[in-house]
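Appendix C. Worked example: ComEC family competence protein
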Amino acid sequence: MALATGIFLFDRFLADCCSLELSLLGLVLSVVAAAACHGMSRPAVRYVFGAVTFLCFFWLGGILYLMEDRQVSYEWPSDEVAYQGVVETVPQRKGKTWQAQVKVMSWKPAGDSLQATGQWKKVDRSILLYWMPDTTGQTILQCGDKICFYASVSRPVSDVDFSGFDYGAYLHRQGISGTGLAFAGRWMRLEQAGSRGFRQQALLVREHVVRRYEEWGLDGDVLAVVSALTVGDKSDLTPELKATYSASGASHVLALSGLHIGILAGILTLLLYPLRLFPLGRSLTGVLTVLLLWAFAFLSGLSASVVRAVTMFSLYVGASFFLEGRFFGFLSLSLAAFLMLLYRPFYLFDVSFQLSFLAVWGILLFYPVFSGWLPAGYRRIRWLWNTLSVSMAAQLGTLPFVLFYFGAFPTYFLLANLLVTPLAVCILGSSLAALAFERIPWMGERAADLVRLSAEALNGSMFQIQQLSGSQVTSVYISGFQLVLCYLLLALLYAYWTGKRKHVLISFLIVLNVLLGTRILDWIKPVDERLYFARSELYSRRRQSLTRLAEADGVYRIDSLSVGLMKSSRWKGKQAASRLPLDYAYICRGFKGNITSLSRVFELKHVVLDLSLSDAYRLSLKEECKKLGIPCVEISSKGSWGIVRQNLK
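Step 2, the predicted output written as structure tokens:
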């Protein structure tokens, strides 16, 4: 808890005012104070020792955050320069471009000779690179290739006010320092991949497995689900398929997590069971299972939820060598979180990390409560009730964060999870069998058929659940303060269930009333409905609801405002006897002409220049607005610009 608190507070408040040196001094002083208090028996000193120990881990969390932030942050040149780097991931097709993560090793100004070795400046940062394929289409980059490219690299635009999502911060916490686009003819492969690292080898193996799925005849949504469920490749998942699983309450099956690791661990334990017949076979089975699970974690891309599950399983197996009794679940969960944050502090801000740990926390806390609701005599349905209890406990543990991030709740999640678990076992088991026996025609083909049938059944059942009336409650967003209140309610609810103490019930009711009061205030206070100029379109936003506006002629009447969306040559060379008043002219890529010609048709009051315009064209339009005395707004830093429409109740 102290380590996570330090990471969180340094990210939100302290990074700018506490340097790495000052944080190291704070850690040293805290360690000295803890050493001075250690061993003293007075109760007051023990409390001081606990507080000082908390400070030690708090400063440690801050130091780890600052160190990782330094490893990612970089001041990229503002102009287009030459870069050298290595392709770190398998390239993916993105429309007309290709995309991959590239480790930029060095750069030099665009005018310098590429053969001069002494002027390259070291970078050693990862970026997300988009590139246009060359005209021949013969040069296809692969993971591990060394490349040289000309591009303007910058930190991604973060329009949080418009989209509600800080894309720049997201990439930064994924270890990506910036993004860039290399046009055709502005990049070249220096040499093909030689020796690849373990992570790159794992990604290539994953790609090979997906290609094997395609050779089995899997395609479309079936291929997308099997790839996501077995090797963590979610590149083929469509927005519609994601929405189906989200509405049905089974989206967790598309992201590798503890469910998949548990199934895989069970399969591996069963396959390795003959080793138990030999001396030390039980220990050898545990070690081999752990090693194979870590290999699977690397193969799937080391997502936070998979690392959490494999770490907890590794701790459980390791503890079984030294402890005769049962390894306490909360200790394993806390130790796994501690080790993961030591390795990578940015895990704390990963949504999958948060939901994964909260799901396990909910299961450890509430599963015994729910499981105990079924009387002891109902043995025939005990397994069914236990499955439902696990689903309810996990859903309860993650519900506040799900509402905080997504504002939606699937109402039929119990029904969905009853179907997901057995079908996921079939898909994972039959996939392993098909890969193992693919050289034996009959066995490999039958296993591949079972994979396809199981995936089709999973997709079909989730689609049917989505179609049920009221399958998802939406637009129920909560604030950060309400998030804290929700988890306080869960803690008090658990305390009352286990202890039946009156003061706990009173505290629960007080917190519940505070939560309801804040929700009522949210709905009765005025809400600003805003009009956004973004991504060459117009949007209206009220609370978290975002709507794209559309007009055939590109001229909008919005309340008392008139707005023109200019992204074609429609108005070039046109004149009007009586000019149409236009409050805002939103000029985007594709617009032909200038402000002067546009003024012959419209009486311009404001001009908004989109980010999609070239720098030279945007500068000339800006200078023209200045000469004509028309206020001009540039959308450059955040990616969007908004104005208040009206106050609505």
